[in-house]
Amino acid sequence: MDKAPLVIGVAGGTGSGKTTLANKLKEAMQGNALILSHDFYYRSDANTPFEERVKWNYDHPATFDTDRMIEDVEKLKRKQAIDHPVYSFVTYSREEQTVHMEPAPVIILEGILIFENQRLRDLMDIKVFVDADADIRLIRRLLRDVKERGRSLDSVIDQYMLTVKPMHEQFVEPSKRYADIIIPEGGKNRVALHMLVDRINALLHTTTRSVSSM
Asked: Cα–Cα distances in Å, from 36 out to 89, 106, 109, 211?
């Protein structure tokens, strides 16, 4: 009898390269993997004015509806489809529509705080922490938020100093101790990526499923 899907957790600080790694893992699985981002599950309160929502601490565990993410991962592990929420980083609110997602042999969870919650960690078969120097992470965040999310340089720097940096030190960096594997530079580390893909393939092979390596 087929076993439950394999769950891979990819955590790391903002701008560390974890999303790149998650995407390359999915690509290597050739249609046998899906990505579920913690960012989909930001809490939302439409009754709170935009000016106030902008000021929220989006790097604290309390800003995520992690319970709902856990429920969705549990459904996927039972090979049931889900409809995950969609969050807008332009309006700082959850969209009305959801995204339908069918189960897959490999479920890749991605986010800065996915190792912080024990219930979520316990659902993972492999936990990967992507490491990068703080200055590199800040530069990448600046480029992303200014180019992709339409934010000003000053607002990105203010948010980084007020919430992102202290929350990284309080929650993200300590969660590294839960990782099975620590990968410097994420998806750009081709040696580590190949090793991880080989390990995933080996685990899938034991459940009579196998995907091609890169």
From this structure: 17, 11, 5, 20
Domains in the chain, ordered, with CATH?
6-205 (3.40.50.300)
C-beta separation of 65 from 43 below 8 A: yes
Residues in the chain, overall count: 214
Mean pLDDT of successive 10-residue segments in the chain (214 residues)? 85 90 94 96 86 85 96 97 93 92 97 97 96 86 82 85 91 96 84 92 69 41
β-partners of residue 129 are 11, 182
- Quote the CA–CA distance of 127 and 97 in Å, as a whole number: 30
Residue 6 one-letter amino acid:
L
Is residue 40 classed exposed, middle or buried when 0-12, 13-18 and 19+ CB atoms within 10 A define those classes? buried
Check if the beta carbon of residue 33 is closer than 8 Å to that of residue 107.
yes
What does the DSSP assignment read for 96-157?
EEEEEE---SEEEEE-TTTTT-HHHHTT-SEEEEEE--HHHHHHHHHHHHHHHS---HHHHH
At 94, list the tokens: 């959850």
- The pTM for the full model equals 0.87
- Terminal-to-terminal C-alpha distance of the chain: 28
- DSSP 3-state assignment of 20? helix
